[in-house]
Amino acid sequence: MSKIKTILLFILFSCNTLAGGIDISKEYLLSKTQIQSQSFNKDLLLSYLRSQTILLIPGVLSESFRSDSNQKIKVDYFLGEIFNDHEDWLIEEGLKYEILDIESESSPTENKDFIIEVIESLPSNVIIFTHSKGGLDTFAALSSRPDLLKKITGVITVQTPFRGSPVADAFAGNFVTKKIGKWLFNFLGGSEDGFLSLTTKNSKERNSVLKNDYQRIIREIPVINYGSFKEDTFGWDTPLELFRDYTQIKIGRNDGVVPLQSALLDDTYQVTESGVDHLNSVTNTSGVRKVSILPQLNYKKSWTFDRKSHFQALLESLRKVSY
Questions:
Q1: Which CATH superfamily is domain 19-321 in?
Q2: What is the C-alpha separation between 103 and 284, in angstroms, rounded?
């Protein structure tokens, strides 16, 4: 690392930190606004991306959101497909990419070998873009094979529960719901360890064991952590309303599954955005909000999120921090 870059990083850490990292939320939001208003000059971004292969790694239940999967439970007809908007944009721009068809209900330890195999098969200059548990699987793979870091341009994690999820804790802490969770993960092709990997207890153990490995990854390549939260407003304001409200009481701001602070590792570049739940960032959850069964108290409002501009703005953020 050059002396100039070291000095700049020191200044950023000193003046613009969040949870032990570098807060680049303003830069991200500015890029996103410019993209949406069509005032963004995307030539530099596309020039940067044309030499890259973008590897999309989804999270739990991702196969249920894909029409081309053989998953036993499918919800893509109602909620759309995971990474569909991301893929559309990559195709529009003629960029190289791959969506990992991973057994998302398996544990990070079980999934790391498959991710390693895929990275080995790709040319150098790989950008890894992950959602939710996909970030845990990715860090497990890179921790196991740090020699692969030389092939990685950077990693972007979106709403990854690095420190666990109170929702997973609640399911794992009750005999009946733990049995249901274990059965569901096994039924979908995963394992009980995949289910438990999302709990706070397992996350603490994993972070303790892999602390030095995580630090090495963050030190050697740019890592952007994106975390979001959905504030509680009148009525049914997110498909994850019950989970969001529960987590709000237990720990504070969250996206309906992952607490904001759980999505942010120390010493990473960090983006925080309000009004985005855990599903908004990767799939279509537009729908009707209802207050009650009484028609006179119902009102309509769509849950919408511009995933293309979100995706582009995060990639632009990676481009900027890479220089």
A1: Alpha/Beta hydrolase fold, catalytic domain (3.40.50.1820)
A2: 22
